[in-house]
Design a protein that fits this description.
Blueprint (H helix, E strand, L loop, with lengths): L3 H10 L24 E5 L2 E4 L4 E4 L14 H11 L10 H11 L7 E5 L2 H16 L3 E5 L17 H4 L10 H4 L2 E4 L4 H10 L4 E6 L13 H13 L3 E5 L11 H6 L5 E4 L10 E5 L1 H4 L18 H14 L4 H19 L5 E6 L2 E6 L16 H13 L2 E2 L8 E2 L6 H16 L3
Parallel strand pairs: 3-13, 5-6, 5-7, 7-8, 8-9
Antiparallel strand pairs: 1-2, 2-3, 4-10, 9-10, 11-12, 12-14
Helix pairs in contact: 2-11, 3-11, 12-14, 13-14
Amino acid sequence: MTTKKSAELFEKAKNYFPGGVNSPVRAFRSVGGNPLFIEKGKGSHIWDVDGNEYIDFCCSWGPLILGHANNTVLNAVDKTMRNGTSFGAPTRLENELANLILSNNKFIEKLRFVSSGTEAVMSAIRLARGFTKRDKILKFEGCYHGHADSLLVKAGSGLVTFGNSSSDGVPASFVNETISVPLHNKEAVKEAFLKFKNEIACVIIEPVPANNGLLLQGKEFLEFLRIICTENKTLLLFDEVISGFRLSFCGAAGLFNIKPDIITYGKIIGGGFPVGAYGASKEIMSCVSPEGAVYQAGTLSGNPVAMSAGIAQLSQCLANNFYNDLEAKTNYLVDGIMKLNSFKLFKMFKLGSIFWIAFTDKKTITSADDIDPNSMSYFKILYHSLLENGVYLGPSGYEVGFLSSAHSYEDLDKTIKAFGIGLKKLN
């Protein structure tokens, strides 16, 4: 396996971009070596610029639930683009995608399209503050909600990869309005509500935290949050940028049958194109401009190309047994790998079509503190072995993996074999 062209491109990229990349985790610093420059993708496979082929379990960090270059999505995008790519004005496609989502999601009544998950969460936080007339928000350590200032407080994702708990450039005044407590800790949440009584606008959580490992919280903790938020007239905000339309069509809210007050979604609703959304009840959404006083706008919000891709993708997700089939494949993959596991500390956690590799002697990992940073040395060895054997994961041991409907059982058998080879190198 040669990666000469990727290395050459990375050296050039360092002249153009900070660290040579346009998003930190891509730099491969967590696993070592140079990042791979991807040339193309089709179905469950991707190819780098050197011609190496990989079975892809990154899936653009989750949104490609149908795999790469799905023909139905491509045809829809091609048809739309021939009529224009952006108008900064309403289109019929916005109505169609919104109707598709709202008709099949009992947890929200209206939504607003934006251009990214970060923008969706940022806007949802502003909406929560505007609706409640309160300033403080409560978040959980290790949950990543995008790079808005007030949310980069003990966050996850790329920040964890580089060992930071926050970011430079975030004013202390922003941090002071953000209460951060440990995950899966009811007493800490209760204490926060006592200390900041009638000050907390919303509690924001990834109902299935998947940016700092797969930190499964369970239904009972989420039900506790629903109750305490209701008691304190605080809004419960589910950040479903990863879990939305991935675990079920209604995301984690549907999986656990818990109704949050606001939900945010990400690129999965745009078939991989830059898009996001936030939604809530008609009452809460009536606060959003131009109907209400909470301002939010975007030239590319509701972009027709992204809308057409979203319609094409989400329509396929509504097929009978779509999510059951994805979960069955995930179970097959994880069970097959664990049968070959020859390394005592190796574990895999999963939910739906999401999985995570961990090196631990713990039976469960529910908070960021449960993850041993030193265990990432094992991931580094396994990661490069998997690349050499044609399997691509996100280049960080803190990131999760995803299956798509394009993954075949032949792909899974090859992946199981590759893991078996890699795990032997850890002994």
